[in-house]
Design goal:
This protein is an alpha/beta fold. The protein has a single domain (6-202), classed as Vaccinia Virus protein VP39 (Rossmann fold). Helices cover 27% and strands 25% of the residues. It has 6 helices and 9 strands, in the order H-H-E-E-H-E-H-E-H-E-E-H-E-E-E. It has helices at 6-19, 24-32, 64-74, 91-97, 110-123, 159-162, and strands spanning 53-54, 60-61, 81-85, 102-107, 128-132, 145-150, 165-175, 181-188, 194-202. It has a 7-stranded mixed beta sheet, with helices on one face. A two-stranded antiparallel ribbon has the order 1-2. The N and C termini lie far apart (33 Å).
C-alpha cells in the first residue's frame, strides 16, 4: 500500500472536519488514500491542498471537501454496491472502495480510465469494477445499486440513473447547465419514488453523452 504524507493529510482532515465532513469512516478513507498518487506530477506539491486540480482530457480531480461532502451524503454501508459516474483520476473511486462492498465506475475517456485502473491496482482496490462507456446511461446490466454518485454535472434530473437505484437507494449528483450547479441528493420518498434535497452550489465539468474521441 502507498502511504500518504501524514502531516499534510492530518492537516487536511482537520480542515475538512471543521468544514462539516464529520463521518468517521469517510474521514478515515480521505486520510488513507494518497491524493498525491492521483494528481499530475506538476501538481504533486499541491496534492493535499483543499482545492480542485486539473488532470488530463480537460477534466479535474475534485476538491477534497467536495469529495468528502458527496461521499458523506451517500451514507454508504459496508455491504453496499455503489455506481460511480465519471472515474476521472480514480481518486473518488478509491475513497468509495474503502467504504463499499463493490464499486462500479464508468468513464468516457479511455486515457483517464487506463491511468485510473493502474492507480487502483497499485492501491490494491480489488473491489472496483471499471467500464469504458457513456456514464449518462449508467450500468443497467449491473443494476440496481444501493448508491449512485455522479461526478459531472447532469444538465437535468438524471432519470436514467435514478431508475437504476434500489427502492431505498440514494443518488448524489450536481445538476445544472451553467458554470455553477446545484448539488442534489435523491432519497426514497416512502411511496416508491424519490424526493430531492439541495446540498449547495458546486462547480463540475458537464456530463457529456457518448464516449470521447481522443487524439
Amino acid at each position: 500500500m502507498v502511504e500518504p504524507a501524514h502531516t499534510e493529510a492530518a492537516r487536511l482532515i482537520l480542515g475538512l472536519r471543521s468544514a462539516g465532513v464529520t463521518e468517521p469512516r469517510v474521514l478515515a478513507a480521505l486520510e488513507a488514500v494518497p491524493r498525491d498518487l492521483f494528481v499530475p506530477r506538476i501538481f504533486e506539491d499541491r496534492a493535499w491542498e483543499d482545492s480542485a486540480l486539473p488532470i488530463a482530457c480537460g477534466q479535474t480531480i475534485s476538491q477534497p471537501f467536495i469529495v468528502g461532502l458527496m461521499t458523506q451524503a451517500l451514507a454508504i454501508e459496508p455491504r453496499h454496491r455503489v455506481l460511480e459516474i465519471g472515474t476521472g483520476s480514480g481518486y473518488q473511486t478509491a475513497i468509495l472502495s474503502r467504504l463499499a462492498r463493490y464499486v462500479y465506475t464508468v468513464e468516457r475517456y479511455k486515457t483517464l480510465l487506463t491511468e485510473a485502473e493502474a492507480r487502483l491496482r497499485r492501491l490494491g482496490a480489488a473491489n472496483v469494477i471499471t467500464r469504458f462507456g457513456d456514464g449518462g446511461v449508467g450500468w443497467p446490466e449491473q443494476a440496481p445499486f444501493d448508491r449512485i454518485l455522479v461526478t459531472a454535472a447532469a444538465p437535468e434530473e438524471p432519470r436514467a440513473l435514478l431508475a437504476q437505484l434500489k427502492p431505498k437507494g440514494v443518488l448524489v449528483a450536481p445538476v445544472g447547465k451553467g458554470p455553477v450547479q446545484t448539488l442534489r441528493r435523491y432519497l426514497p420518498d416512502g411511496e416508491g419514488g424519490f424526493r430531492m434535497e439541495t446540498l449547495g452550489d458546486v462547480r463540475f465539468v458537464p456530463l457529456l453523452e457518448g464516449v470521447a474521441k481522443e487524439g
